[in-house]
Write a structure and sequence with these properties.
This protein is an alpha+beta fold. 53% of the residues lie in helices and 9% in strands. The protein is built from 20 helices and ten strands. The relative contact order is 0.18.
């Protein structure tokens, strides 16, 4: 196997690739799915696509997506699937996914293994606990906005607000020293980059895990009131399992919310009528958060599953071993589910979007993300009622090179 084939197959396993025209967003329409994806969605709700010699089923219908994500015959375990064995050699598989790396990676597990981890974590991610964090989240948001005011315009909303807020929150929740943020943010960015080589992925994954293993050992010696200490104290999880869980929570806990805050602000600024409506009616913020989640769908690469046995979804028979990709951007703009789905409407009645997934793998931290975004957007628009872009919209650098969509920078002024 050549180096190029090794890289392509490994990347295909980590994040199943679709034809570029179905996955790459157009910078001229930064908030919309790829035009070809929208066109395909209009022809049906589940599509069989041949790409790079492989069969991928692409789901664009809302009901079909929920059916896939709730179906026990559909597996989330991409690491140990028959497809993984076909794509990469046993040697590369062992290098990419040693036992210590797989430990605790519950998002790639099926029941009953997944159930064990999920049950332990659900007790930590209660709605009450997330609501109890709201005063501290408000304090963090206010502090960041105070610093923006003091520094004066212009500002990069990503570095000055959108990234620090969820990073500080997840650090406090897990008990991670915020002084270590540069390291985990840099390593996370490398892991999420579509241009990172597989060797760089392996290196950064290992170093991030070692960082978290040292933290777990510290919590065993001197536990605190944080979530990770609670897991150390109240469960029988091993150090490797705890490190794996903590890594997943750390990455998901700051990257997704940071990009929603930044891209969401960009979208509001490019829809001045909706910006004004939300600014003048802050009681709409919780509703607006759900609409931005639906409208932007930052998990633009989709959610992958593979069939453990033959299963029928939306009238299509998916054979055992075949891959299914739920296209979150297309599903969240399903014409049958939403009226005027391509319009951003901050007062749209709340619907059943799949931005947080569905079924047993639905995002554990969704309530925390909702609180962070609700407080963040409320205070940002209150403090900066005249917020506007400091550069032309076409000059805002988009994260088309990352597996989580958003903006690399958002220059703003007021």
């Amino acid at each position: 196997m050549t180096t190029a084939e090794r890289q392509r197959n490994a990347q295909e396993l980590i994040r199943p690739q679709l034809p570029a025209e179905l996955s790459q967003r157009d910078g001229r329409c930064p908030f919309d799915p790829a035009a070809a994806l929208t066109e395909l969605s209009g022809t049906g709700r589940i599509h069989k696509i041949e790409h790079n010699g492989d069969t991928v089923w692409l789901v664009t219908g809302h009901d079909e997506a929920r059916a896939v994500l709730a179906e026990p015959k559909m597996s989330a375990d991409r690491i140990n699937s028959p497809r993984a064995k076909a794509l990469i050699s046993p040697e590369l598989h062992a290098e990419m996914f040693p036992p210590e790396r797989q430990a605790g990676s519950f998002i790639f597990m099926d029941a009953p293994e997944h159930t064990r981890f999920r049950r332990m974590l659900t007790g930590q991610f209660t709605v009450r606990r997330m609501r109890d964090l709201e005063p501290r989240i408000h304090e963090i948001v206010t502090t960041q906005l105070d610093a923006m005011v003091e520094k004066g315009p212009p500002a990069d909303l990503v570095q000055d607000f959108a990234l620090p807020v969820p990073s500080l929150v997840i650090c406090e929740l897990l008990g991670v020293d915020y002084g270590d943020r540069d390291e985990f943010q840099r390593r996370t960015a490398t892991l999420l980059s579509l241009n990172t080589t597989i060797d760089e992925q392996i290196k950064n994954s290992g170093e991030l895990r070692r960082f978290m293993q040292s933290l777990v050992r510290a919590k065993r010696q001197d536990p605190g009131d944080d979530l990770l200490s609670g897991l150390v104290r109240d469960t029988d999880l091993t150090d490797n399992e705890l490190a794996g869980i903590a890594n997943l929570l750390l990455i998901a806990g700051h990257e997704t919310t940071a990009n929603m805050l930044a891209l969401g602000t960009f979208a509001l600024l490019e829809h001045p009528g909706e910006f004004a409506k939300l600014r003048d009616n802050p009681e709409l913020t919780e509703n607006a958060v759900e609409e931005l989640l639906r409208y932007l769908s930052i998990i633009s690469m989709g959610v992958a599953r593979h069939a453990k046995e033959d299963v029928v979804i939306g009238g299509a028979t998916i054979r055992a071993g075949e891959t299914v990709v739920v296209s979150v951007p297309a599903v969240n703009r399903d014409q049958a589910q939403y009226e005027d789905p391509h319009e951003l409407l901050v007062d749209r009645p709340r619907g059943h979007h799949v931005a947080f997934g569905h079924g047993i793998h639905q995002c554990l931290g969704q309530q925390l993300a909702r609180v962070e975004m609700t407080v963040g957007f409320t205070e940002l628009l209150r403090r900066f009622p005249d917020l506007r872009l400091a550069v032309p919209a076409e000059e805002v650098p988009l994260r088309t090179d990352m597996s989580i969509y958003g903006v690399h920078k958002l220059p703003v002024t007021w």
